[in-house]
Amino acid sequence: MSKTYEDVVQEGLESDREMVRVERPSPDRAVLTMGDPDKLNILSAPLMIQLQQHGERLVRDPEVRSIVLTGDGSAFSAGGDLRMMQTAVDQFGADDDTEGAFMPYQWIRYRFGAFARLIAKSDKAWIAALNGPAAGVGLAFALTSDLAIAAEGAVIVPAFGKLGLVPEVGTSWALTRALGYRRAFEFYVGGEHIDARRAADLGLVNEVVPADDLLARAHAWCDRIAGLPDHVLPIAKPLLRGSADASWDQSLTLEELAEPMCFTTRGFADGVAAVTAATAGPASH
């Protein structure tokens, strides 16, 4: 019997296995760990639905300022579940297939795409901590994050072309902005794995650290974010992301509108007072 999108969602909801762990080392941050290491944290229906549910809860939590996304075991994420893809392919054209390509479209848009939008559009800082290979939609989530830190053994895996797929879930946008068109084209067509150091040189990750230091480094970034005034990230994040597609004049205008709002906040007043006190010379007599 052919499956509908709702059938796939229901199967994911019915799983009683915990496939995503949530840790709260302190109120201002959370660590989301994809937890299906035996299958390289593929984004199966149960894992993806749990990831989305936990992410949505954390985004709504007013105390959370940073969310670290990482994987359990040897991989960050191998991307989409090939078995789900094969099921969709096998049922195309069947007499009882009522949705056709609309079935995978819904999964891609309402699950994969929705989670990428959650990362990009929320006011929280998302930090991808790449503990191992990142491929497909897993790579898309890493590229969408606000920061990406890679362990020395992590690998960027551009598997789209070999599977007969186009860059997905925002990857074409991220790659062309990080690499330019020609290098992005080379990345897609060549399909060669990119080790962590080269990924950093290309701007695909921010930094590379020893594997044992990966989460500590992610928490160091969380500490920096926690030290910012409360109003800064909700204003600066959409401004910086919007500038990627805006002209210089549009970006300048957005900054001109946003900056006066900062002047009215207690965080700005405290920051000015602290800097002024630190730079003031000794009192004259």
Characterization of this structure:
It is built from 12 helices and 9 strands. The strands form 2 sheets. Strands 1-2-3-4-6-9 form a 6-stranded mixed sheet, with helices on both faces. The protein has a 3-stranded mixed sheet with strand order 5-7-8. By secondary structure, it is of the alpha/beta class. The radius of gyration is 21 Å and the shape is globular. 51% of the residues lie in helices and 14% in strands. The relative contact order is 0.11. The termini are far apart.
Short description:
With 285 residues, this protein is an alpha/beta fold. The chain has twelve helices and nine strands. It folds into two domains: 5-226, Alpha-Beta Complex (2-enoyl-CoA Hydratase, Chain A, domain 1), CATH 3.90.226.10; 232-279, no CATH class.
Topology, pairings included?
Layout: H1 5-14, E1 20-26, E2 29-34, H2 45-60, E3 66-71, H3 82-91, H4 102-121, E4 125-130, E5 134-135, H5 136-144, E6 147-151, E7 155-157, H6 171-179, H7 181-190, E8 194-195, H8 196-202, E9 207-209, H9 214-226, H10 232-243, H11 248-263, H12 266-279
Parallel strand pairs: 2-3, 3-4, 4-6, 5-7, 6-9
Antiparallel strand pairs: 1-2, 7-8
Helix pairs in contact: 1-2, 2-4, 4-5, 6-7, 10-11
